[in-house]
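My main concern about presentation is that the manuscript never shows what a single data entry looks like. For the editor and my fellow referees, an illustration may be useful. For illustration, here is how one protein appears when written out as sequence plus structure tokens:

***
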Amino acid sequence: MTVLVTGATGTVGRQVVAELLARGERVRALTREPGSAGLPGEVEVVGGDLTEPEGLEGVFDGVSGVHLITFGGALFAPLETGERLVAMAEAAGVRRATVLFGGGETPLQEAVCGSGLEWTVLMPVEFMANALEWAPDIRATSTVSEPFPGRLSAMVHERDIGACAAVALTEEGHAGQTYTLTGPEVLTVYDKVAALGRARGAGVRVEELTPGEAGERWRAAGMAEEVVGFLLEVYGATPVEGRTVDPAVPRLLGRPALRFEEWAREHAERFHLRPSVRGPLPVGPRSEGEAGAHREPEPRAPASPSRRTPWNP
């Protein structure tokens, strides 16, 4: 049988595909633009859009499990086609489904959880990949500008999210479960920036923005007012789920969750200095996160599994 992965070219979707292949599973990947998917050759890539179920006839045929995202269309709007998609999956004999939680209740998640499928909801907190948003500024000025730099996050490696999805889709014992997925440690912005500096071999400064300055910067970058307000709220008072290490990842995978230090080394090339800014950086209380200093769009995951914000699946 085959496992179907929707959102297959996104931050998490690619990891789900890779983890399923590593387990020897046959994978069918659904994407809006199959010609530019860039997935491994052994993957069956099919074109389709979850917002248009009428164009998905046959996509669920021969599928034993499906990984589903909960949003689609413009600006990551929640999918309104959940009931139709679930009906198609059940009619085709699909047995299992994982749902990647998008920060709030959605019609698709409600349809899946009310169906006869063996469903598992995956609720990741902040993605480690969100740090890629800092890459342009780090390359250009060796600086990260953020509000509330002492805020805490138990951010999770996207590879761990993909691995947990693969486990739930191919092993028994996960039906009806909701898993909060976190990394193995709680980090401040200073901690993350220090890890990036070590990975690229050159320090990075942290510039603290006021909430007003951060809001203006995000608006200028095109963020909707709702998103700006949400980010200021959760950054200023991160909900407990977003700053608490959960044991789900090591329990599901039989190994420790991956650390941000590992993620930073894997992506160090994205943060390398440009020649024009090479050289020593001043060190101070807001530099390098030293101890006591407390689309596709670039991916963004919820800081907490209790609210919605744009992200890349």
Summary: Confidence is low (pLDDT under 50) at residues 275-300, 302-313.
